[in-house]
Amino acid sequence: RVYLSDRNYGGKAYGGRALVHSLVTLGAPLADSAGAAFRGVAWTNREEPMEDVRCLAVGATGTPGDSSGQLTQNAYSFCIDGGDGSVLDGDGITPTFSSTALPGAETLVLDGVTHFPWADVFGGPQFAPELAEEYRNGKPWYG
Question: How far apart, in whole angstroms, are the C-alpha atoms of residue 31 and residue 36?
């Protein structure tokens, strides 16, 4: 989204909107939240909706914050200012409300998919044991 903007970001304005027909986000956190990690999100959220670029924001449900492990609960908590990620649902990394919060975009919410194939990467089962187990048991991923 920074690439699409005509505004200066970190010393450069890309103006890529003229070269891009469509934008698809897959589980990206799109809602504002506190902290340095979300400064770029807040910056892009000040952009007007892109009427000349088709946008699709894809999110997921089926990985509740209260029963999918500490990584998921903490990741969801990170996406809400001072909140409790255990009350949210999403893809295991990004809560649904945040991954579909792109003004002017069409949205697609996939049920029962996860953000990443944790069981397929070195250390994944140790880092995210619940998510790795769900993936090993057949839960598809999309991120």
Answer: 14
Task: Give me the DSSP letters along 91-111.
Answer: SSSSBHHHHT--TT-EEEEEE
N-term to C-term CA, the chain: 17
Short-list 121, 117, 126, CA closest to 27: 117
Distance separating alpha carbons of residues 22 and 34, to the nearest angstrom: 28
User: Quick check: 17 and 53 in contact, CB under 8 A?
Assistant: yes
pLDDT score of 36 more than 90:
no
Cβ atoms of residues 85 and 78 within 8 Å: yes
Q: pLDDT digits over 56-99, tens only?
A: 999 999 999 998 999 999 999 999 888 789 999 999 999 999 99
Residues 50 and 38: their CA atoms lie apart, in Å, by 20
